[in-house]
Write a structure and sequence with these properties.
It is a single chain. The protein has eight helices and eight strands. It is of the alpha/beta class. The longest helix is centred in the middle third of the chain and has 23 residues.
């Protein structure tokens, strides 16, 4: 029996783009083996590749359908999948959504179903990474009284942490730069937006910031009890991958 070739969807990486893929999959009764963001795909031999255009109207129809059937939690989990760095995230989200349309809100109790298990793993990993950077992200003051933070998260958590810092800092303009994705979150004290950081130039670090860094590192070193230094425990509580842009670990 001749085997049908794998189908791979490519989309623009937006949530609307992913929902457009879901619409296409239902319309064509397809089960793509992979749904991948543009420029982030390794093609399999013999696969049929389809570029799915983002269609806001189709995306809205799918969004409303998910809200009515499995509910808002399922919609949020699907959104997290589009932020994930896991290769199978979007395809797993599609399988999860299909199940949600079949059994509705009973999906939240289907904890032994492999589709639910995988979606919970993906969503949890994204939320965990966002939560960690709410703690570990460090800001520096630039000339012009602008705060600047830089990081390189594995999932794309910038859209998840921007509302938190906009609410917390309120009247303080700031920029958070996802260096790996060349994406910046910019807050102007009224609203925040995501923009490409390609070609972005920044003011120098302020003189106040230089003094703050010296004082912070002095404090960090002075409170350490030499006899109680435990590198293994410190790494468990603060993995090394988060330290690159943290002032207290800066050797400059």
């Amino acid at each position: 029996m001749k085997r049908e070739p794998d189908v791979i969807y490519i989309y623009d990486g937006t949530f609307e783009g992913f929902l457009s893929c879901v619409f296409e999959a239902f319309l064509k009764k397809e089960a793509p083996s992979l749904i991948s963001k543009q420029n982030a795909i390794q093609l399999s031999v013999g696969a049929e590749v389809k570029e799915i255009a983002t269609d806001p109207e189709k995306a809205d129809r799918v969004c409303e359908g998910i809200r009515k059937k499995p509910g808002l939690k399922a919609l949020t989990a699907a959104y997290h999948a589009t932020l994930s760095n896991e290769e199978d995230a979007e395809a797993a989200a599609l399988r999860y959504i299909k199940l949600g349309f079949e059994i509705g809100k009973n999906i939240y109790g289907a904890l032994t179903d492999s589709r639910v298990i995988r979606m919970r793993e993906i969503s949890f990993a994204v939320k965990r990474e966002a939560g960690r950077f709410l703690e570990f992200l460090r800001f520096s003051e630039l000339d012009g009284n602008i705060l600047f933070g830089e990081f390189e998260p594995e999932p794309n958590v910038l859209p998840l942490i921007m509302p938190h810092f906009a609410d917390r800092l309120k009247t303080q303009p700031f920029i958070i730069h996802d260096k790996g994705r060349r994406l910046a979150g910019v807050y102007n004290t009224k609203e925040w937006s995501l923009v490409s950081s390609v070609g972005m130039t920044l003011p120098d670090i302020s003189e106040n910031e230089k003094e703050y860094r010296k004082l912070w590192k002095l404090f960090f070193n002075s409170i350490a009890v030499k006899e109680r230094i435990n590198p293994k425990l410190q790494t468990q509580l603060l993995p090394k991958k988060y330290r690159k842009y943290m002032t207290e670990f800066d050797t400059l």
